[in-house]
Design a protein that fits this description.
The chain is of the alpha/beta class and about 160 residues long. Helix content is about 25%, strand content about 30%.
């Protein structure tokens, strides 16, 4: 079993603003971060280059992330003030993206589904599985969505050896 990962750190420029309209904390206000994304891929076999995925091919996945998270205002589709944000879009003061929900956990799930579709389109599946997607707001806050189809409790790991 092999694993590899791809990370787009905070310096990648996925700066976006969002709010959690249900929060009783300050998170119900619009606030922003430069998000980071971390992908973990897995396979039992490597390709002809000895890779799980060609990291160069991830440019198109990064482009999808840019369409959703680069200088965007992300609002949940059930936000009671959605019309207010649509008005801001129509006035040209914000680049609105409406998602099913806002926040790191739901962003991780959304990006997981996006990356699964990307793997399929690039013909990586079924050889390659997406293990997880981690979304970070900053160094202290992150959320991870783990592939529900991978039962890691059933995997056999080699014994640890200490020398």
């Amino acid at each position: 079993m092999y694993q590899s990962g791809k990370q787009y750190g905070f310096e990648s420029g996925f700066s976006c603003a969002f709010r959690q309209h249900r929060a009783e904390s300050h998170c119900h206000f619009v606030h922003g971060y430069s998000l980071g994304f971390n992908f973990i891929f897995e396979s039992n076999e490597l390709d002809e280059n000895g890779w799980i995925v060609d990291f160069g091919s991830l440019k198109s996945l990064k482009a999808e992330l840019e369409k959703t998270f680069d200088h965007k205002t992300i609002i949940a589709e059930d936000d009671p003030h959605l019309d207010y944000f649509k008005q801001g879009r129509d006035l040209g003061v914000l680049d609105l993206v409406v998602l099913p929900a806002a926040g790191c956990e739901k962003f991780a799930e959304y990006v997981f589904v996006l990356a699964q579709d990307w793997l399929r389109k690039k013909n990586y599946t079924p050889r390659v599985a997406l293990v997880s997607v981690k979304v970070s707001e900053h160094g202290a806050n992150h959320a991870t969505y783990i592939n529900p189809k991978l039962d890691i409790t059933q995997r056999a790991f080699p014994p640890m050896r200490f020398y």
